[in-house]
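Lab notebook, bench 4. We co-purified these components, and the gel suggests they stay together. Before we commit to crystallization screens, I want a quick structural picture of the whole thing.
Request: model the full complex, all chains together.
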Amino acid sequence: MAVKLILRDKEYEVKPGMTLLDSLKKAGVVPESVIATRNGEMIVEDEILKDGDVVKLVAVISGGADNRNSIFATRIPTPE
Amino acid sequence: MKCRKCGAKASVNMRQHRLALCKEHYLEWVPEQTERFIKKYQMFDRGDKILVAISGGKDSLSLWDILVRLGYQADGLYIGLGIDGGINYSSESHRLTEKFANENNLKLHVVDVENEYGQPIPMLSEISHRGHGKPCAVCGLTKRHVMNRIARDLGYDVLATGHNLDDEAAVLFGNTLQWSSEFLLRQGPVLPSTEGLARKVKPLCRFYEREMTAYALLRGIEYIYEECPFAEGSTSIYYKELLNKLETDRPGSKLTFYLRFLEARQRGDLFAEKDIRQANLHPCPNCGQPTSAQGLCSFCRLMEKAEGVATISRSAL
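Here is the predicted assembly.
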């Protein structure tokens, strides 16, 4: 068994016994970019994840390129 | 982790504030803070008629919810963009916005771009050849135009948008990388009304995007989770991801970046080269190098202190 982290259509498995924060880092998920829920309840970074836990991650980033006070309003440079 | 207010299990931890709260106290804290920002930046007051721009996303629906909870007169404006992207993006965001308005008995204005201007956003973009193959520039331009028109035509005092701190920090980061002085000098929580332009405010500008997501989830607000199909790969999202990596390692970085910028802008410290040249520099009486400090320069003061410590140490031997 393991701990399962689900973010959109991706699944990650990490070892049980780690905190949520360490588990996210281990899976390569930026902790600041997600909210974690377990059994429908939000959990915070120091929560120890147990064998068999299924943690659903809600992505928090949204937005596009349409802010008025921004270079994005007129030009969209592509990151290299 | 425990709620700082009641000791119950925390649902949200805000590392930049060193504050963890349970569901109940978090749902009280967010409107309290919003009210504080509305007053601090003098956005509007109880007598004003507010038009809230609603996209169907977490931020705008949460903003509407918060303003109504706080007792403000807030109506919504939804702009139908005609974006499908294989996920019925516009129709689904419209449905969720209508649902929220109906459930809370709120007034919602709807403007459909195709009905009013003949073409949906993707077609307007194609026709105009603006935006390097992406409709974001045309979309932004159209939304700003419609929001302003409706706010003015229907006599609203202020137009409120759901921009959060991550939105603002990403814009600030992009404009700083480009040293876009014109844009930097215009960015802020309030854009005052000018001839023909409605007053615009951003009451959520000091909340992290993560906090607004938590608010929407804990309040049970159903919002469109899928991103606009055209936002994928956008520069603003790329910058948000970069800033979130920084925030993970250095909690509070995003908040400090934005707040220090606002403070510098308010003091008139941005792009102050003229002032630097005119600063009252004079030679340090000890070393002769220029300094703006009264008396000795900072280096000589440091040396003076170091010498004092050394003298004390020597005399102690």
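The CA atoms of residues 12 and 26 of chain B lie 7 Å apart. Worth comparing against the SEC data before the next meeting. DSSP finds 13 helices and ten strands in chain B.
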